[in-house]
Write a structure and sequence with these properties.
The complex is a heterotrimer of chains A (388), B (97) and C (357). Chain B is an alpha+beta fold. Chain B has 2 helices and 5 strands; from the N terminus they run βββββαα. With 357 residues, chain C is of the alpha+beta class. Chain C has 2 domains: 61-173, 60s Ribosomal Protein L30, Chain: A, CATH 3.30.1330.10; 187-344, Alpha-Beta Complex (Phosphoribosyl-aminoimidazole Synthetase, Chain A, domain 2), CATH 3.90.650. Classes of the chains: A alpha/beta (388), B alpha+beta (97), C alpha+beta (357).
Chain lengths: 388, 97, 357
């Protein structure tokens, strides 16, 4: 009955035997480096999700610090951007968005809160569904578009596929490569290597990391999302660190090539242009935000609607937002336990910052797992060990 | 930020494909896939769009890559790693599709 | 450069202490928020039941009131599901099954009677109402239950979303099984595949357009439970039906109330290929998904195989499996052994939404 042992080839990447072998290899190589800790960063929420879901943290070597960087697109969507979506919803405009975004708090409230007050928010699995909603409805549908370049490609395709005139896009899409530079250049950073997101790289190609590697002298390994992919990616990265090798390695060749998916890139950059902007908690990221080009002004929600965020400021904005240190956490320089609000005013059922809302937010994971729980079966340990 | 799930193409109609994911079928859009796809191909799906046609040889190539990692770090005196490698070699054939 | 701190997750940690000013959807989702709401708004201040009775404060599947040497078991449910008709069932079948199953989860498998109150929105099609009623009749026949009284109200268009059903059930039983009787070493058994109902409904509700026979498992379980409770008396020491919040929520409650820890074996969880596929596609974990025709049983270790065999002999228990056991570590926590490592199972907070990330 259990499908884990049937199905097609992909499931080979969940083989526990190979996984054990890779875990042992990882521990051995990390040991060879000799430093404690060795810090590496991944910049993909789905990597954190996969690590958490498969229970890999319980098997990582003690001296390897795998930090989650600003790779959760929900977490780094800045408050004013969330407010734009919320404001539109409260103005009576029907919003369609991905489920991940619905509970992220803005200045005063999230889309879910707006929905509780009567706003219409549809959760969709695909931008194509939002287009379909627009086809079936006489009223405007604004697609609140969040996600990194992998997801922006889908939005671009939808824009280019001649959507109905009542379909609009409010773009909060982000572009990952620029933020890696920012993190690498932060003064307190101790990151010695990066694990890059395999599906974003499927679009962009691994070649985009070569200039980064040359500039920052830090290795980058592109990894997939199955347990074996992640473990193998980590093994490769610690090997590069051990050997002081400065290069880009592709450990996800079944999906990633050097130049990437040119057809997708062409559509992406035809529809979107990168602009500098704020990511939640990380000052300014040059070329980190994606906005619709002028040629597509007719479906740009920012141009076609008067988005009135001032209405939100009639409520006293909670002061807590100013104490939120999600930015430092996402940059890997602070940990959740450094935050005065963590576990007190900011908890999963009433989050202050996005790190606590998103299923892969660092704070959410730490709070629910009690830090990085020591769950190894031989530990005999009681309680969680929070390590940083 | 990349929930990408692989599936097998069952039918293609212009820019739409019916794709099978472990027995569940879904219509997936082909506007941005890198290569033309036909029934029998595997694609990677992200939010209802195919973003990659996964070449058939690649799965085995990737597994070989991982085994190389294991073999590489083997020491002569490391019996544990040797045990694991032979366990893998023994188990590998059962899982061919 | 490693800052080490020991954090013990306690039972108190799992009960949030802050309630929002306004009730949002998560308060109905079966998880911690809902339990806090019930505790702080409904239970607090309410007089306790008579000595020996199981009442509101126990927050079990139903109430059990002593009558002589027997128990009168009562339960009530309101049903607001949308869509009203879904693959495998409808709100009528859900109403009957839900109430019959709550009674069964207290050990009361012979239903004395059910009530059914409907609140209908103006404009609701009569044909749909008839179809729902037909479904109620069929489900009652399956459960050997009868609707003995009811109520009918109509509200104006827009004042209600379609239809709301409320069902109350009563039964008399000589044996009561709570959800807090687990002890260290006890095994956990699920009566069949998990995630069927929630994934079928989610696929329909969010227009996921998945073609794969995703079908709700909604069904009355009293027949199955009667067979097993009669065959292996005393072996089942705790029971719960994992509805909203899925297996994760049910196990959390049982673990917390019983004061044990639980370790689940992910590879042993029975999941249909369709549910697994659909869940993968939308980034949902089947342990968090609602079931409406399943139960999770806490069983004494030496009786586990006997219970399993008894379950598997019944059509509704063919896919029963032993999926975990109770430990004395991490009281109140549920750990999942993934086969690659281990992680804590987190209770879902609020309605499950499809994820792209």
């Amino acid at each position: 009955m259990n499908a884990s042992h049937e199905g097609f080839a992909q499931l080979k990447f969940r083989d526990p035997v190979r996984a054990r072998g890779l875990s042992e290899t990882l521990a051995r190589v990390a040991q060879e480096i000799g430093r404690n800790p060795v810090s590496i960063m991944h910049v993909c929420g789905s990597h954190e999700q996969a690590i958490a879901r498969f229970g890999l943290r319980a098997t990582l070597p003690r001296n390897l610090n795998v930090i989650m960087g600003p790779g959760c697109p929900v977490c780094i969507t800045d408050v004013p951007e969330v407010d734009e979506g919320v404001a539109l919803a409260r103005q009576g405009v029907r919003i369609a968005t991905y489920g991940d975004m619905v509970r992220v708090p803005g200045t005063v409230m999230s889309l879910a809160d707006a929905q509780a007050e009567g706003a219409r928010v549809d959760v969709v699995y695909s931008v194509a569904q939002a287009v379909e909603l627009a086809r079936q409805s006489p009223e405007p549908i604004v697609f609140f578009a969040t996600g990194f370049e992998t997801t922006a490609v889908a939005t671009a395709a939808a824009v280019l596929a001649d959507p109905p005139s009542n379909f609009f896009v409010l773009s909060a899409h982000k572009y990952i490569p620029p933020v890696m530079e920012i993190v690498a250049e932060m003064p307190n950073t101790r990151v010695e290597g990066f694990l890059a997101a395999g599906h974003a790289a499927t679009i962009t190609g691994w070649g985009v990391f070569e200039p980064f590697v040359a500039r920052q002298k830090l290795p980058v390994v592109v990894a997939g999302f199955e347990p074996l992919d992640i473990l193998a990616g980590l093994v490769k990265l610690v090997e590069l660190i051990r050997d002081r090798a400065v290069s880009v390695e592709n450990m996800y060749p079944r999906c990633v090539t050097k130049e990437g998916n040119l057809r997708a890139q062409e559509q992406l950059w035809r529809v979107f242009r990168p602009i500098g902007g704020r990511w939640r908690g990380i000052a300014h990221v040059p070329n980190g935000n994606l906005r619709l080009r002028d040629e597509y002004a007719q479906l740009d929600a920012r141009k076609q609607f008067e988005v009135d965020v001032t209405g939100l400021w009639d409520y006293a904005p909670p002061a807590l937002v100013h104490e939120c240190i999600c930015g430092d956490i996402m940059a890997g320089i602070k940990s959740p336990t450094d935050c005065a609000l963590f576990g007190k005013e900011c908890v999963p059922h009433s989050p202050v910052g996005a790190c606590m809302v998103s299923s892969e937010g660092t704070c959410k994971i730490w709070h629910q797992y009690g830090g990085h729980p020591d769950l190894s079966s031989h530990s005999g340990g009681y309680g969680a060990v929070c390590t940083r | 930020m990349c929930l990408g799930v692989p599936g097998r193409v069952v039918e293609v109609n212009g820019l739409l494909a019916i794709v099978d994911f472990w027995g569940v079928r879904k219509e997936i859009r082909l506007e941005v896939v890198d290569e033309p796809v036909q029934p029998g191909d595997y694609i990677l799906n992200h939010v209802g769009y195919a973003i990659r046609r996964i070449p058939t040889g690649e799965v085995d190539a990737t597994l070989a890559l991982y085994e190389e990692l294991l073999a590489h770090s083997e020491r002569e005196d490391d019996l544990m790693a040797a045990d694991i490698t032979s366990e893998i070699q023994g188990a590998g054939d059962e899982r061919k599709p | 450069m490693v800052d080490i701190r020991i954090c013990h997750p306690t039972l108190e940690d799992t009960v949030p202490s802050v309630l929002d000013e306004r009730i949002t959807l998560k308060y109905g989702a079966g998880g911690p928020a809902m339990r806090t709401l019930i505790q702080q708004v409904f239970v607090e201040g309410m007089a306790a039941p008579h000595d020996g009775d199981i009442g509101l404060a126990a927050m079990d599947d139903g109430a059990a009131l002593r009558i002589g040497d027997k128990w009168l078991v009562m339960t009530t449910d309101s049903h607001v599901i949308h869509p009203v008709f879904f693959p495998g069932g409808d709100i009528g079948r859900l109403a009957v099954s839900g109430t019959v199953n709550d009674l069964a989860m207290m050990g009361a498998t012979d239903v004395l009677g059910l009530t059914c109150a409907v609140i209908i929105e103006e404009g609701f099609p009569r044909a749909d109402l008839v179809r729902i009623q037909q479904s109620i009749r069929e489900s009652c026949a399956e459960a050997g239950a009868v609707i003995v009284t009811g109520d009918t109200k109509v509200m104006g268009k827009g004042e209600l979303d379609g239809i709301v059903l409320n069902t109350t059930g009563i039964a008399i039983t000589a044996r009561v099984v709570t959800d807090s009787g687990l002890r260290v070493g006890d095994r956990l058994i699920v009566t069949g595949t998990i995630g069927d109902h929630g994934m079928a409904v989610m696929a329909k509700r969010h227009g996921l357009a998945l073609d794969g026979n995703l079908c709700s498992d909604v069904a009355p379980l009293n027949g199955l439970m009667r067979a097993v409770l009669d065959r292996v008396p005393g072996a089942i020491v705790a029971m719960k039906d994992p509805t909203r919040g899925g297996l994760a929520s049910a196990l959390h409650e049982m673990a917390a109330k019983s004061r044990v820890g639980i370790v689940l074996d992910e590879m042993a969880l029975p999941v249909t290929p369709q549910v697994r596929a659909a869940a993968e596609l939308v980034g949902i974990d089947p342990v968090n998904v609602a079931n409406e025709g399943k139960a999770v049983l806490g069983v004494r270790p030496d009786a586990a195989n006997a219970v399993l065999n008894a379950l598997r002999e019944h059509p509704l228990g063919r896919n029963a499996a032993i999926v975990g056991q109770c430990t004395d570590e991490r009281i109140g926590a549920v750990i999942l052994d993934t086969g690659f490592g281990r992680r804590l199972v987190i209770e879902p907070e609020g309605e499950l939404l499809p994820r792209i990330c």
